[in-house]
Structures
1.
Amino acid sequence: MKPVILDVDTGIDDMMAIAYAAHSPELRLLGLTTQFGNISSEVATRNTLYVLEMLGQGDVPVYAGASKPFRRADVLGDAKHVHGEDGLGGALRGASPTGRAGSMTAAEFMVDQVRRMPGEITIIAVGPLTNLALAIEADPEFVSLVDEVVIMGGAATVPGNVTPYAEANIHSDPEAAAFVFRSGLPITMVGLDVTMKTLLPRTRLQEWRSDGTELSRFMADAADFYMDAYENFNPGIGGCALHDPLAVGVVIDPSFCKIVAMPIEVDTEDGAPALGQTRVNETGTAAQSPSIHVCVEVDAERFLAHFMSRVV
Ligand code: BDR
Ligand code: CA
């Protein structure tokens, strides 16, 4: 069992990633860390606690993290138009969790855990990279104590989703992303190159609806909302992208993707159209464009079958 910390901004596809991870015997969830991104940090924390309780995993600790970017004073925006006011497409129906977040911050928890288990922990980061940046800044040895970081974010070979250049998680905190990418952490990037190919078709929702469990109902309601948003931006797409679940999938079985090392830089130029872009820079120095493991192809059919067999 691989010990993992899942860093989320829960979010509909984050919720799917949590359920997929919680139901996967290859992984041991040490804790979940939350932050701003799709919605505020408070809402992300509430949603994460609620989803874990619904999964019967209320004993997995949750730690609240960043409520604003690493270097900027203000949040650049949210994704309520994709994930709903409650972040879960209205599926919460006003419910709230019974548990509370732990007393450490997300970054403190990450540091604490990698110090207890040096070289063993995989961090799966599926929101902005702010908590990770704060952990690196807090502990000079953090980078050498982590086994691997798998991030959902960025794009190396395809356009962005929040702007023509940038993917949402990187765009939410470009300075944190640049700091994390240049830190020397062993990073695998699960970006739009592959996640836009792992679509959950709307036709599959019927399987969850006919299941009749609270979890399946919740998953179907939230996914319905998410698919409507996808249809708005990509008419005719017929489903939604399984961004965050694919990052979990790559930790369970890296052979879902073809992974290639590439020199990647993050655009942090304020006001520039490409702010938050992750691009391949063959001519940059290793400090500017460190080599990152980038997922460039995915066996979408095999991944989707695996995800569907576990998520509810
Ligand atoms: C990423 O942005 C968020 O909206 C999703 O949860 C995912 O992590 C996709 O670009
Ligand atoms: Ca996310």
2.
Amino acid sequence: MTTQRRDDNPPTSVKDEQLRAHAVEKHGSYLTTDQGIPVEDTDNSLKVGQRGATLLEDFHLREKLTRFDHERIPERVVHARGSGAHGYFQAYDDSLAEYTTAEFLRDPLAETPVFVRFSTVQGPRGSADTVRDVRGFATKFYTSQGNFDLVGNNIPVFFIQDGIKFPDFVHAVKMEPHNEIPTGASAHDTFWDFVSLQPETMHMIMWLMSDRAIPRSFATMQGFGVHSFRLINAEGRSTFAKFHWTPKRGVQSLVWDEAQQIAGRDPDFNRRDLWELIEAGRFPEYELGLQLFTESDAERFDFDVLDPTKIVPEERVPVRPVGRLVLNRNPDNFFAETEQVAFCVQNVVPGIGFTDDPLMQARLFSYLDTQLTRLGGPNFASIPINRPIAPVVNHQQDGFHYDEVPRREANYHPNSISDGYPKIPGENGYVHYPELEDGRKLRRRPESFADHYGQATLFWNSMSAWEKKHIVEAYRFELGHVERRYIRERVVDHLNHVDHDLAVAVAAGVGVAEPAKAVDNHGRSSPALSQTNKGGRGIKGLRIAFLVTDGVDAASVTALRDALRRDDAVPELLAPADGTVRTTDGASLPVDRAISTVASVLYDAVVVPDGTDAAAALRSNAQALHFLAEAYKHAKPLAALGAGTSLFETAHLPPFANGLGGGGAAAGVVAREESGAPDDAFVTAFVTALEAHRFYDRPLETVVA
Ligand code: HDE
């Protein structure tokens, strides 16, 4: 798995040009100190005699060590582990002009540069990618009117309703304070204790227990702004807006057993995938959609649009396609860009506004506040990755790391010394929506936020059979790691208010008594919530393992491999040993990797090509058999040709239909016992299976992998 950079491309946007102005090229230059003094020797410190004391006078030694000692900045308190990418956003048309003055949303000719950072929430910087967790999906739009930061997640609701609960929630989910365990996991007592005492978490927890919390790729997960925002048009009219990112490839997830294994096999799995997709030109793409609704629509909903634990069901307000996001450039430097990027919810441009969602309001404070510590002072907005492409002119000044040399006389407003500059831009200035506020100061949750179960039930009712099964298994896993039985009981009690069958199924797995039915399920569902209805197109970037060895039939490999490559998938030949394998026609094929260096969990599908001798050898190769059986167990598409089909029986896999397969006992297995190269129908059947991604309804009872 290569992580080499492609050749440098020319800058493709104003933001790229701005960043390039800060690029440092070390090739062809000579070593100096930070003061530009040429260095004589950087391998030996200055000593009295060869074996004598080291001298304090050695400024190069001291500077080198000091700089090293201070390389780290505090990691983010949440979302510490992240991966970034550059790209652009482009609106489809100008139809949003009726709703907003934000130019990037209504000018179809503008390619707005963006920087996106994906993240997990719980784990520290060095933790594994494939843990069960929410994923951050934060986008900085460098618009002509200033920066807009859409700091969202891949789940459309949040754990809590009021920002004042955030420190409690984060303390509970993070590693426990006495032993810093567990890393990157919510399966522990303090998290579930909090959840069980704070039932507003119930809806979000349903999502967290679903496969949405273990995405296959950052390119195959949704993103959401979560809160209700406002769009504000030229007349000052406000419309509520919910932001949605939808991946062009569709929503795809891992299965839990696989995710856990990947955490060991390749902790950088999602990061590497993103990097490689972009390096190979298989750019991740997403559609931006908006749910737009008015104040009076909102009054008719049976939930409060200011409550961030609620969605607006798509069946009530459809998602309107607005534009597309393409991620097409990897960062040049992780620290300079991905680590130093500072998202702030307060960063909005004219035409986009806030609401009184109490979670959003707290975020308006918290993000700027955290950057002050994380990035060492108030000048973080002038770090290249954070710098707007719109001009920045004001009287803010000084502080740590100030990098301007202002040449002006007046540093205050109003002034006459500098002819009044910089002047107020008049009607282009950002105007806060003049919402009418009226009420007493008090610390109360509104009554309209009181229903904590209704939408959790809606989510559960909308799941397909396999999604429900995975959710039950996830609850059992998580609660199975909770040591205090009374916490497990409290969670089951809450689930009993979501759905009785769910509570019974979870209780049975975690040693909790079956609860008596408490409430009737309201029976409503929202099909748009099910992952089965979030399919996408194409097989771009899918990794497909071909199990080969000496005696493999060349035609059955190359025909399928070439077809997959044409569709932008990534086929790789895996053999018991690296090097080459001999084919039946006496030629040889280069091997991509030895089977022992990888694992089925790092691939999306497996192919066993034809070849009598190869099949015989693989049938007595435990690693190959395990590879195949495990991919089957993880519901992945499999293809087998000619003698290759014989591995299925040896691997104790259920029988498949001889033909193109796809349905029946072994759904997603495309197999043909007849020898020779695959025909078009075979290729099409396999590509269709790959597009479906997973086949969760397979019989698994006999699979021992
Ligand atoms: Fe965050 N959140 N958050 N959050 N959040 C941070 O800001 C915070 C919330 C989200 O890739 C921190 O720069 C509070 C909701 C993302 O750099 C911090 C509250 C949503 C990222 C912070 C919330 C998010 C953060 C940590 C409740 C989804 C990573 C470092 C009032 C809509 C951004 C930092 C990146 C990061 C505070 C709730 C998403 C501490 C106080 C809801 C994607 O400021």
